[in-house]
Amino acid sequence: MSNELLLRILGYIWSAFGIYWIVAGVKGKSAQTHEPHWYRFLRLSILAVVFLLLFWNRAAVGFLGARFLPEVALVEYLGFALTLIGLTLALWARIHLGQYWSDKVVLKFDHQLVRTGPYAYMRHPIYSGVLLGVLGTALVLGQWRGLLAFIILLINYSIKAKKEEQILSGRFSDQFREHQNLAGFLLPRFRSRD
User: Reduced to 3 states, what is the DSSP secondary structure of residue 89?
Assistant: First the structure.
């Protein structure tokens, strides 16, 4: 399968993922806290930049269009698999979080700290899954613009996750600190849970 075809298929998969995300976001509990509207606009703009870098050929200007990897089918298939694994992780985490999910940094009414499923091993598995998906897509693309997209999203999600952790720590204090000790930030932590 050619690199171009793999990227086209990934474009369709990411589009389906995005549509599911939007539709699934309609349900859920009402937010008890709020965030500034400009903050959400900024995050959505960053996501747009990330996916333009990955899929818009006009973004391949200068060094951004240069390859950081040789075109090797094995690496491209590995990237494709990583994308699927990452999106599966993000979907599992999103479904597991259920009514407490929000694209905004907020607490829901009657918010519960979810510590099961993928949340037993990492505190931000949705971000981890999407990041893995973007990294996999960058490997298929093989150009510096793909790595730039990953770095931009990593910075964005790290900032967002830290804001979420401040809110959760304020709400769940000792319970959240225990969760921090047992579950990794963006990478899984596998520990004995005695």
Answer: helix
The string of DSSP letters for 156-177 reads HHHHHHHHHHHHHHHHHHHHHH
Q: Phi first, then psi: what are they for 38, rounded to 5°?
A: -65, -30
CA distance 116 to 104: 21
What number does CATH give the domain 3-182? 1.20.120.1630
Cβ-proximal residues to 43 (8 Å cutoff; 6+ apart), any chain: 103, 156, 160
Please tell me the distance from the alpha carbon of residue 142 to that of residue 125, in angstroms, as a whole number: 25
- How is residue 38 written in tokens? 């400009």
Distance between CA 137 and CA 77 in Å, rounded?
A: 10
Alpha carbon 79 to its chain centroid, in Å, reads 16
Domain ranges for the chain: 3-182
Whether 94 and 163 have beta carbons less than 8 Å apart is answered as no
d(CA 125, CA 122): 6
Tokens 């990934």 appear where? Answer: 10
* Tokens, residue 161: 């996750």
**How far apart are alpha carbons 68 and 180 in whole angstroms?**
35
Query: For the segment 6-22, what is each residue's pLDDT rounded down to a tens digit?
Result: 999 999 999 999 999 88
pTM value is: 0.92
**Model confidence over 102-112: pLDDT tens digits?**
777 777 777 88
